[in-house]
Amino acid sequence: MFHTQVRILGFDVGGTKTAVVVGNEEGEVTAREEFPSEAHRGPGYMIPRMLESARKLLSKLGADVASVSIGGPLLAEEGRILGPANLPGWDDVPLKEILQRELGIPAYVEHDAKCGALAEWYWGAAKGAENVVFLTPGTGLGAGMILGGRLYRG
Asked: What is the rounded distance in angstroms from the CA atom of residue 44 to the CA atom of residue 51?
C-alpha cells in the first residue's frame, strides 16, 4: 500500500515569539521560521507577518493543512480568538477563516496547552499514558489535559 506523508503548516503564536513550521504527522519539523511577535502591535501587524512566513514555506515545501497553537481564550471549532491577555487587540479575531482564505488550505485552531498535551501524548514523554497534564509557562500560563485517553475540553 502506498502512503503519502501529510504535510502540516504549523503556527505557534505567542506573546513573545511566533514560529511558523512545516512538519509531518510523525511530529518531524522540516522547515522553520521564527520572529518576535511584537504583540503590542496587534493582529493587524502579526497576521501579515505570519502569512508572509507561511507563504515562503509553502512555496518551498507545500502543505495539506494548517494548524495553529495559540493561547486562549478562544473558540477552537470556529477558530476565533477571544482576547488573550498576552495578545492585545486579538478580540474576536476569526483566525481560522483568515488563514483558510489567504492560504487556500484547511486550517484548525487550538489552545496552545492542549496542543502541547496532544504532542506529548502522541510523540513524547506521555506517549501511551491514559491521563496527562501539560503546563505551558511562558508569557502566560495554560494547562492541557488528556483524561481517560481523550483531550479534555471545558
From this structure: 11
Tell me the average pLDDT of the chain: 93
Question: What pLDDT digit, counting tens, does each position of 76-132 carry?
Answer: 999 999 999 889 999 999 999 999 999 999 999 999 999 999 999 999 999 999 999
- 99: phi > 0 → left, psi -120 to 50 → alpha, else beta; which? alpha
Q: What b/e string do you get for 94-108 counting C-beta neighbours within 10 Å, with b at 16 or more?
A: ebbebbbebbebebb
Indicate whether 51 pLDDT > 60.
Answer: yes
Do residues 97 and 137 both lie within one domain? no
The residue to which cell 505551558 is assigned: 136
Q: Which amino acid type is present at position 10?
A: G
Assess if residue 136 is contained within a domain.
yes
Are 103 and 124 part of one and the same domain? no
Cα-based distances in Å from 19 to 1, 64, 81, 133? 35, 18, 18, 24
Identify the three-state secondary structure at position 98: helix
